[in-house]
Amino acid sequence: AGWGISNKAQGMFVLGLPYAILHGGYLGLFLIIFAAVVCCYTGKILIACLYEENEDGQLVRVRDTYVDIANACCSPRFPRLGGVVVNVAQLIELVMTCVLYVVVSGNLMYNSFETLPISQKSWSILSAALLLPCAFLRNLKAVSKFSLLCTLAHFVINVLVIAYCLSRARYWAWDKVKFYIDVKKFPISIGIIVFSYTSQIFLPSLEGNMKQPKEFHSMMNWTHIAACILKGLFALVAYLTWADQTEEVITDNLPTTIRAVVNLFLVAKALLSYPLPFFAAVEVFEKSFFQEGSMALFPNCYGVDGRIKSWSLALRCVLVVSTLLMAIYIPHFALLMGLTGSLTGAGLCFLLPSLFHLKLQWRQLQWHHVFFDVSIFVIGSICSVSGFIHSMEGLFEAFNPVRLPPIPQNISSNRAF
């Protein structure tokens, strides 16, 4: 369970953290710590919402999923509204995660082989072609094998990047780490940092499958402490090495010889990471629209023999292609990650767990728990709205750059005056 949370919290998205330090300075480092503390707390209270006390005063697990918690909060007036909201947020989060893996794969391959006459969009298409077999995934056993290989690739990447940064330690630009923030870009950094910690979607299922669920709290503590330390060091060391030249994806700053090697491992890691959010998204789709018995909108995806029906397989392929199309038309890794983190990451990690905890556990809560929940909800709302607005502005500027009018050349100075 601990390694699962660690892998989720220290995945591909640590590559955008030095970019967050670029626009946030020391406040960005503080937010890496703050986000770890808050996400650890909200993960615990989310799991607390799965339990209720029985007549003997013992805690009994009465709910199984995030959706069950949401439905319990909205009952009896709107028994399914909460589940719909959570399902939509989960789908956006998971699909956008898949899109980010395709974006970063195309970006890395393009920057690794700049001499080849292949565009970034073409590299993204080639990456998506390799991901089409994900449509055949049936269970988490196959996904777990990809995750194991992903962990090995992540270890190699960290060693190579940090080793290069340490070799440049004598040139580190400590004076570039600022105490002031870029008001326009920093909200995007908040979304990046929040998105890098999102694991609440997987927590109910993970806790339910633990052999000793009582150790969930200690597992959350040490995994988030480890993630916080490693992310903070990685972001700071990388930013000190390149300072104001820090790119959206930090590996773009590496020298050409090292960059090609690291990028190949990163592409492998991105492609191996894709199956987990893709499989989770497929499960949400199937449970929401195809496997709810009398409430299902469409027929079951599986035949009597348990095999995937051909039309269902085609829909899975369409989902892969959809992530490719989004990656082609929104090829901005940091802005896209900041937008997703602000839109769904803050909601699933900060807002909803706090709101659900207050609703379901109100009678058992002490005053400091109420204070924490309300504070997290208010701060999360502000960060979410601000990050979403500035991420959208950043994407708008990226697609519509300001072009200055040409300066007249063939006119005299007096006439110009």
UniProtKB/TrEMBL annotation:
It is a multi-pass membrane protein. One of its GO terms (cellular component) is cytoplasmic vesicle membrane. It is found in: Cytoplasmic vesicle membrane; Presynapse. One of its GO terms (molecular function) is gamma-aminobutyric acid:proton antiporter activity. PANTHER family: AMINO ACID TRANSPORTER (PTHR22950), VESICULAR INHIBITORY AMINO ACID TRANSPORTER (PTHR22950:SF689). Antiporter that exchanges vesicular protons for cytosolic 4-aminobutanoate or to a lesser extend glycine, thus allowing their secretion from nerve terminals. The transport is equally dependent on the chemical and electrical components of the proton gradient. May also transport beta-alanine. Acidification of GABAergic synaptic vesicles is a prerequisite for 4-aminobutanoate uptake. Belongs to the amino acid/polyamine transporter 2 family. One of its GO terms (biological process) is neurotransmitter transport. It comes from Callorhinchus milii. InterPro entries: AA_transpt_TM (IPR013057). This is Vesicular inhibitory amino acid transporter. Keywords: Cell projection, Cytoplasmic vesicle, Membrane, Neurotransmitter transport, Synapse, Transmembrane, Transmembrane helix, Transport. Pfam families: Aa_trans. It comes from the Eukaryota. It catalyses: beta-alanine(out) + n H(+)(in) = beta-alanine(in) + n H(+)(out); glycine(out) + n H(+)(in) = glycine(in) + n H(+)(out); 4-aminobutanoate(out) + n H(+)(in) = 4-aminobutanoate(in) + n H(+)(out). The chain crosses the membrane at residues 20-41, 84-103, 123-140, 147-166, 186-203, 224-242, 262-285, 313-330, 336-358, 370-389. Residues 3-392 form the Amino acid transporter transmembrane domain. Signal peptide: none annotated.
